[in-house]
Each structure stands twice: as C-alpha cells, then as structure tokens.
Design brief:
The complex is a heterotrimer of chains A (354), B (281) and C (260). With 354 residues, chain A is of the alpha+beta class. Chain A is built from 8 helices and 20 strands. Chain A has 2 domains: 229 residues, P-loop containing nucleotide triphosphate hydrolases (Rossmann fold, 3-Layer(aba) Sandwich); 116 residues, Nucleic acid-binding proteins (OB fold (Dihydrolipoamide Acetyltransferase, E2P), Beta Barrel), CATH 2.40.50.140. In chain A, strand 17 and strand 18 form a beta hairpin. Chain A starts with 5 loop residues before the first strand and ends with a strand. In chain A, 42% of the residues are buried. In chain B, helix 7 crosses helix 9. Chain B is globular, with a radius of gyration of 24 Å. With 260 residues, chain C is mostly helical. Chain C has a single domain, classed as Orthogonal Bundle (MetI-like fold). Chain C has 11 helices and no strands. The relative contact order of chain C is 0.14. The model of chain C has no long low-confidence stretch (mean pLDDT 86). Classes of the chains: A alpha+beta (354), B mainly alpha (281), C mainly alpha (260). Chains in contact: A-B, B-C. Chains B and C meet through helix 1, helix 3, helix 4, helix 5 and helix 7 of B and helix 1, helix 3, helix 4, helix 5 and helix 6 of C.
C-alpha cells in the first residue's frame, strides 16, 4: 500500500487545562470516505479543525501528501472545509461564493464562472448561479457550500456535521448524494457526525471516537459486526451487554461465568479477567430455545413496533440488572408482561475486555 | 406569527391607541402647527412664503445651510475613518474577557452631560488651555494657536462624540459576524487583507450606514456643540433657528427653517432607507 | 511585518483612547482647581468649587427637577412603548406597518425640531412653559425608542410561551403580568434605562419649553455664560460621576442576569 494521503501522528490537544485529544494517530487513504463518529465532546470536531488548519495541536504532527502541515494556515494547505452553518457569504451570489476560492488564486473571471458553473452542475444546482444564498433552501445551501469547497480541487475535503441542520428525510437524501458526488470526484472526504446511521451509510472507513481517543476504526461492516470496545459496541448500533468473568480457556474456546450461568464461546482470556459479552439485537432469540447458548428467561418490559420489526426490551429474571434489547419479527406475538426464554448462538457473541 | 385575541378587536386597539394618540397629539400636531406657522407673516399675520424664500435670498442664511452640510459631512467621514479601525482593534485584538471592559471604557465619556462635554473641549482648546500651554511649553509654537471658536473646534467636539457612538455600532457589527465567514474565506485562500476587503467590510457596511445616518441626523440638528465651540463665528442652521426665537421671537421664520432642516434629513433618510430597517428578531 | 502591524494597531487604539479621555480628564482635574480659572497651571487640589456647587440652590433644585422629569417621562415612555409593541407584535391590525412607522417616526427627527414644534403648538394653545411641557417632549423622543427596542425583542419564541400560558387557562391580564412582562424584562429595562439617560442629558427641548424652573443641563448652560469657571467643571464632574455609577450598575445587573 502506498503512503497515506493524510497521516496524523500522535496528536494531542488541550483547551487550557482540558485535554480534548489524547495521542490520536490516524491514516487517511486517497479517495476514501472517512467518517469521524462520536458523541459531543469526543474530540471529533477538534480533530477535523486540526486537519483543516484552524487549530494547531498541542503535540503531534499532521502530514498531508507527505508534507508536514501541522502549523500551515488553512489558506495554504490542500484541504477545504464545508462548515456546519455553511458560512456562505450572504452579500455574494451563489456564483460569487463558488468562485471565491478561484478568485483568491487569481483565476480570471471567465474561467472562474465556467468552473463555478461546472461545480454547481456537479451538485445539481446549475440554475442557482445568480441567486443569493438567502433565496435557497437548507439543502441547496448545503450543496453550494459543497461546490464552493470542491471547485478548488482540494486533496481532502472536510465536512463538519454537514447534514446536522437538515430534517431527517432531506438528510437521508443528501447522504446518498454526498456519497455519489464523492465517488464521482474521487476526492478524499473526512466527515464528522454523531449519527451512526449516517456513518454506516457513507463510510469506507469509520473512526469511532470517545473522550479524546479513537476507540475503534475500520470498515463500518467490521466495526458493527466485531466492535473492539464496549463503547464501540453500544455507540455504533445497540447491544445487550452481559458482564462476566473469564474461566478456563481451552481449544480456542473460553468459558465465561455470568449471572446467567457459564457461557462457552470462541476466544481466549486470562483466567479471572472481567469481560463483557455484547450481543446485537438481531442475534438474540426469544421464545423456545433455538440458539446454542441459553441466556435464561426474561420478562418483557416494552415492545416498540418499528414497521419492519419489533424492538423488544426485556429484563432478565436471573439478573434484574440485565436489560435485553432484541429485534423480533413484525409478526411476532409478544407483549409487555410476557415471560420468555432468551438464547443466542455462541459465534454471534462479541467478547470484549471490560 | 400573530393571532386574534379572545377579546376580539377591543384589546389590541386598547394597547396601541395610547402610543398612537401621544404621537399624533405631541408629534404630528405640533408639526402641523409648525407648518402653518411657517406660512404666516411674522408681522401682522396673513399667508406668506417669505419665510422659506429667505433661505435663498439672504446670503447669510444660505451660508448657514452650507456650513451645516459641510460640518456634518466632514464629521461623518472623519468619525467613521477613526472609529472603524478602533472598533476593529477592540473586536479582534483585545482578548475576549477584556472586551466588555475595553468597550465600556471607550464610551465612558459618552455619559458626561452633552453640554459639559463641549465645554470640556473649550477648556482643552482655549487660548491658554491645555493644548496651547503644552505646545508653547515644549517650544513647538511661540504664540498660542486660535483653536477655540473655530470650525476646527466644532468638528473636534462632534468627532469626539460620534467616534464613541460609531465604535459601539461597528463593534457590535463585527462581533455579530459569524466567525465561520472569516474561516471560510481563509480556508479558500484569502489572506487577512483580502478577507477584510471581500468579506468583512461588505458584511459590516450596513452597520456603517446606520451609524453614518445616525451621525448625520444628530450632527445636523445639534445646537450645543457649534454654539459652545464655534460661538457665532460660522453659524449653522440650528443656531439660526434658535436666534429667531431667542432674539426676535420670530416663530414663523424659526418654523420654516426647522422644516427645511427636516427636509434635508428626510432626503438623507431616503438615500439610505434600505439599510435602516427596524424589524422584529 | 506582522509585529509592526500589531504594534501600530495598539498605538492607534491608545491614541484614540487618549483622544476620548482628554476632555474628561481636563474637566475633572480642573474641577479641583484652587484658583478661579480652570486653565493650567494646576493649583489644587481643592474642593472649594464642589462646595460652591452644593450650596447653589439653583443647581441642586435643577438636579432634582432633572431626576423627576427623567424618571416620570421614562416610565411613561416605557409603558406606552411596551403596550403598543405588545399590541403590534401579537395581533393583526389593519395598517400595522404604517402605524408602526408613525410611532417610530420621531426617531429620525432632530430634537430641535421636536422642541420647536411643541413650542409653536403650546404657544398657540396657551400652554405655559413648564417642566411638564419638557417632560411631554421627552416622552415624544423616548417612546419610539422604547417601542423599537421592545418590539424588536418580541419574537415567536415569546409568542409561544404566551400561548402555552393561555392554553393552561391564564386570563389575558395574567398572561401580561406573569408571562410577558417577566420574559420581556431585559428589553423593558433597557428601554427604561436608555430613556432615563437621554432625558437626563437632554438640553434643547428643556431649553425651549421651560422657563423659571428648569433642568440641570439648562442650568449648566446658564453657568457657561460666565465663561470658563471651575464651578462648571465641578458640576460637570458630579453629573459624570452619577452617570458612571448608573452605567456600572446597569452593566453589573446585566452581567448578573446572564447565566455566565
């Protein structure tokens, strides 16, 4: 594999006394769509600001195309940012906005207009050239901001919660368009969000952040199926977490002692280590035991109809502190107050250090 | 978003009528009275247009109009040129936590009495005042300069006041600008100078226009500052109006001159009307 | 280069501060002059001119008059301004934009012209010159200000809060007293405070509309006829001190209101 396009090495940052990034290292490949996913305060926006040049990190280095860009100002680094509030200049037309970066490069008016029109066509807004930003809808402004950032052909495009201001339906629609545009232009996109559905839909490479650290990174499929940490297992999709203690490991299997009884599953651990077993809702089986691991019985506390399925919350009879989150077929007959057996398959259990 | 109350039409009118009545009774009606008075001959009554034509026939009256416009224009331009960079330093270079204090200090003399403020400048600019004593003291000049009772003094007094006023409005404007505009400009390759010229200046222009209009209205209608700092040396319109009342009790002429003055302000208002909208947030 | 620009900018700011404070410093310094002329060299410090001011009953009674006119005219302005702003913001009234324009119209007219108009009207109607006449004039200039400030702050958010109160069964007068006034308190307070300072400092209307009993600015004006006089410095410094205390008080209450 060639050298990464962006190489963030051991970056830490503090705002005053408050550490917001703790020794973060991250590589971004050319042409990839990277999502920084995390709750507010996780440091994802700070990391993006460091990439964009708006914040110089307290420690560590940022290399873009192999050059040290750690302290290079935003104007002179090959990144552009799509701001959360879009920051379209209200006194300029849409064309003036999109052409602004080229104008700063000294590109002549005719070329500028032609390229701006091209960029607007790319985002499906060719007709808006002469309009003012306030005449556009939220989704259209979002596209203008995208065109304005793309027209100067950055190596990396940074998007700060770009869909946050849009309503849900528009957000899902823009999400598909963003992905399509990214594939068409081939520019590496780095996109910050706290919406895990957005992350799964868009990312080639998903980076889960929490408390100033990278908890997990990889393809969204991998992060979802085999999260590396307990945080990742609960933030990227939901999980039922069963706490336990490692028993003996033998033949690539480990026995974990839990309140629900011993559970044997593939993996290994030092004896006595505290473990967490994460199980995705779709892997929990309710009713007559079908899975190869029995998880006791549970009393259903809530059933939420979600259209294509039912989301079932149930409290374990054996361990009242344990809440099961399961996905039942839409046709399943289950009501609050029912008591039901719970089981799953050993290979679906995710073994996590606690 | 509005709606009709449960009390039908009675309540809303009960709310707005007192203010409207006050405005009609003590603003519109006096204005009509002034208009009628301005068309009346001072000696013996009867209809006349002489009070208006006097402005154009009497050279000293016309001179006062020209003086008023000149002083106001000079003051407006100098005040903006001084206040903008000052407001910029306060908004951009003073650390956030000290800004409120810095701004409060910058407009503190605003709260001295208007009459006293002009008088203070007289102390500074007088024949044997602070400036002349300092300059002769260090031997820069041999004879005291004639600073007081000049147009220079009037302009200085006015500029002092309006620099404070404009600093307030421009500062507010600069702070209202979302920082992401500047970030975006920098991100797209604009340096500090071009960010200012292409983004910050155009976006603060409406605020400057509002400030300029305020300066114009307050300056052209002010009697105190020219009367104290220039005396009767170069008369401006408000001095002329007050002279008609004080010395001759000529209400009709004073009314006519007031209406002319107001017409000038109205023209200025129409010129920058699109910048001056009072709207609900 | 960068450093040079920075230093130049700071020097410029200091120079403007100097310009702004020069007359105030001179005023206060020479109010402490021991001799009879407020010009260099400084001969003080002495408080004799402050004594002279405080024992001058014309000045002290003018001060009381000024305070009275300021408080009462501001109360009237803010009450009328608030009620009309509420009416216009909450209800659809025919010709609303035109009527709102009428209320704010005096903002664009010089005080001199407002004073002149009232003088001509009162002269015709036979209303004698008095503090009341000046107070009426002060309401004319401050009512549009209070209206504009309060009206501009009545957003949809406040309307929804009021609707919620009505929805919960509050009658109109309770909505006004328990919801609207408390929610709008900052704007009402700002309107009142600004009206106070404008009225307190207003000269030309008071000059035209009062005769024997008058306000402090007019009385100070009368003092000026005697030329440069440390007594004028002293009274000016006192007025300044009172205003500064008020401003600091206003700033502090605003700061304390904010959940910092």
């Amino acid at each position: 594999m060639s050298a990464p396009l962006v190489d963030i090495r051991n970056v830490s940052h503090r705002f005053g006394q408050l550490p917001v990034l703790k020794n973060v290292s991250l590589a971004i490949e050319p042409g990839s769509y990277t999502i920084l996913l995390g709750p507010s305060g996780s440091g994802k926006t700070t990391l993006l600001s460091i990439l964009g040049g708006f914040v110089t990190p307290s420690e560590g280095k940022v290399f873009i195309r192999g050059a040290d860009c750690t302290a290079v100002p935003p104007a002179r680094r090959p990144t552009t940012t799509v701001f959360q509030d879009y920051a379209l200049f209200p006194h300029m037309s849409v064309g003036g906005n999109v052409g602004f970066g080229l104008r700063m490069q000294g590109v002549d008016g005719a070329t500028r207009a032609a390229k701006a029109r091209e960029a607007l066509a790319l985002v499906g807004l060719a007709a808006a050239f002469d309009k003012k930003p306030h005449q556009l809808s939220g989704g259209q402004r979002q596209r203008v901001a995208l065109a304005r950032a793309l027209v100067i052909e950055p190596a990396v495009l940074l998007l700060d919660e770009p869909l946050g201001a849009l309503d849900l339906k528009l957000r899902r629609q823009m999400q598909d368009e963003l992905k399509a545009i990214q594939k068409r232009v081939g520019t590496a996109f780095v996109h910050v969000t706290h919406d895990q559905e957005e992350a799964m839909a868009l990312a080639d490479h998903c980076v889960v952040m929490n408390d100033g650290r990278i908890e997990d990174e990889g393809s969204p499929e991998r992060v979802y199926a085999r999260p590396k940490t307990r945080f990742s297992a609960t933030f990227m999709g939901e999980s039922t977490i069963v706490a336990g203690k490692a028993g003996a490991s033998r033949d690539g299997r480990v026995t974990v002692t839990t309140e629900l009884g011993p559970i044997s599953l593939p993996g290994a651990s030092t004896v006595g280590a505290a473990l967490a077993l994460a199980i995705r809702p779709e892997h929990l089986v309710l009713g007559d035991t079908k899975g190869d691991v029995a998880l006791g019985t549970a009393k259903v506390s809530d059933v939420v109809f979600q259209g294509s399925f039912k989301r079932v919350l149930a409290t374990s009879v054996q361990d009242p502190a344990l809440q099961f989150m399961a996905k039942a077929p839409a046709s399943a007959i289950v009501q609050p107050g029912d008591t039901t057996a719970v089981s799953c398959n050993a290979q679906d259990i995710i073994l996590l250090a606690d | 978003m509005t709606f009709t109350g449960h009390n039908g039409r009675a309540l809303p009118w009960a709310l707005v009528t007192p203010a409207l009545a006050w405005t009609l009774l003590f603003f519109v009606l006096p204005f009509i009275a002034m208009g009628l008075s301005s068309l009346t001959a001072h000696e013996g009554g009867g209809f006349t247009l002489a009070n208006y034509s006097q402005l154009f026939t009497d050279p000293s009256y016309w001179r006062a109009m020209v003086n008023s416009l000149e002083v106001t224009a000079i003051v407006t331009v100098i005040s903006i040129l001084l206040a903008y960079p000052f407001a910029w330093v306060l908004a951009e270079m003073v650390p956030e936590r000290w800004q409120r204090l810095a701004l409060m200090l910058a407009v503190l003399p605003f709260w001295t009495s208007y009459v006293v403020r002009s008088y203070s400048w007289l102390l500074v600019l007088a024949q044997n005042g602070v400036i002349n004593r300092t300059l002769t003291g260090i031997g820069l000049i041999a004879e005291p300069l004639q600073l007081a009772n000049t147009r220079f003094a009037t302009v200085t007094g006015f500029v002092h006041f309006f620099v404070m006023l404009l600093t307030l409005t421009i500062f507010a404007n600069l702070k209202q600008l979302s920082p992401s505009y500047r970030k975006a400009a920098a991100d797209l390759g604009a340096g500090p100078v071009r960010t200012f010229l292409h983004v910050v200046l155009p976006l603060t222009l409406p605020g400057i226009m509002v400030g300029a209009f305020l300066t114009f209205v307050l300056c052209i209608g002010d009697y105190i500052t020219p009367q104290i700092l220039d005396g009767n040396n170069e008369l401006v319109m408000p001095q002329l109006v007050m002279m008609q009342i004080g010395r001759r009790g000529d209400f009709p002429l004073a009314s006519a001159l007031s209406i002319i003055l107001m017409a000038v302000v109205t023209v200025a208002y129409l010129a920058c009307a699109r910048w001056l909208k009072i709207e609900r947030a | 280069m960068r450093a040079v620009v920075r230093i130049a900018a700071w020097l410029y700011a200091i120079a403007v501060y100097g310009f702004i404070f020069l007359p105030v410093v001179v005023l206060v310094l020479f109010s402490l002059q021991a001799t009879s002329f407020p010009i260099p060299p400084f001969t003080g410090p002495s408080l004799r001119w402050y004594q002279a001011v405080l024992s001058d009953t014309r000045l002290t009674s003018a001060l009381v008059n000024s305070l009275l006119v300021a408080v009462l005219s501001s109360l009237a302005s803010v009450t009328l301004g608030f009620l009309s702003a509420w009416g216009f913001a909450r209800f659809v009234l025919p010709g609303s934009a035109l009527l709102r324009g009428l209320i704010t119209l005096p903002l664009t007219v010089s005080y001199l012209i407002i004073g002149m108009g009232l003088l001509v009207l009162f002269n015709w109607a036979g209303v004698p010159k008095s503090l009341l006449a000046a107070g009426i004039g002060h309401v004319v200039i401050n009512l549009p200000l209070c209206f504009a400030i309060i009206y501009s702050q009545m957003g949809d958010h406040q309307i929804n809060i009021e609707r919620a109160a009505r929805d919960l069964g509050a009658p109109e007068w309770k909505v006004l007293l328990m919801i609207t006034v408390p929610v709008m308190a900052p704007a009402i307070f700002a309107g009142f405070f600004l009206s106070m300072t404008f009225s307190w400092d207003e000269f030309v209307i008071s000059f035209l509309l009062t005769r024997f009993e008058t306000t402090l600015p007019v009385e100070i004006w009368n003092l000026l006829r005697s030329g440069l006089n440390p007594k004028t410095n002293a009274v000016g410094s006192l007025v300044f001190a009172v205003s500064v205390v008020l401003v600091v008080f206003f700033e502090l209450t605003l700061l304390l209101r904010k959940p910092a």
